[in-house]
Amino acid sequence: MDYKTIGLGTIITTILTIVLSIIFFPLFLLSPVIGGFFAAYLSEGYEDYDEMDKIDGAVLGGISGLIGGSVIGILYFMGFGVIGAIIGAASDEIGTMVSIVLITGLVVFKFLGIIGGIIGVILKE
């Protein structure tokens, strides 16, 4: 695993999610795709071989999106950002809301990261 590029993809996902959700709320869905793209595109490959295929890009992008989604979920549930305000106003049971939104967000960010990782490998070739 190339942990440096996964970390870079996570940082890109987190920062872009915050910035894009402030600028225009639906744009934040682009951030895991971009983070997964950079995680796969900048990766040098694995220790055993130098070539990357689409599955490797999907793994790197998915891990990047999953970790980035976790960080964003923690930040938003600590009261940072637009999502926390919208969800807090719409829900009266905090435990149910946290679990539903966090699980949904992680799944969405993971799959968008996978798409970005596959795009990164395709453009790298």
Structure described in brief:
The protein has 125 residues and is mainly α.
What does this structure look like?
This protein is mainly α and 125 residues long. The protein has one domain. It contains 5 helices and no strands. α1 packs antiparallel against α2, α2 packs across α3 (54-77) and α3 (54-77) runs antiparallel to α5 (94-124). The longest helix has 31 residues, at 94-124. 39% of the residues are buried.
Write out key terms for the chains shown.
single chain; mainly alpha; 125 residues
Total number of domains: 1
N-to-C span: 19 Å
What's the story with the biggest beta sheet? none
**In what range is the share of β-strand residues?**
under 5%
Mean of all residue-level pLDDT scores: 81
Rg, Å, rounded:
15 Å
What is the general shape?
A: elongated
Question: How would you describe the oligomerization state of the chains in this entry?
Answer: single chain
Overall strand count: 0
H/I helix tally: 5
Helix content: over 70%
The helix-strand sequence is HHHHH
| Structure classification | mainly alpha
Please mark out the parts with pLDDT under 50 across 5 or more consecutive residues, or reply none.
none
Topology:
Elements (H helix, E strand, L loop, with lengths): L2 H21 L6 H12 L12 H24 L4 H9 L3 H31 L1
Helix pairs in contact: 1-2, 1-3, 2-3, 2-5, 3-5
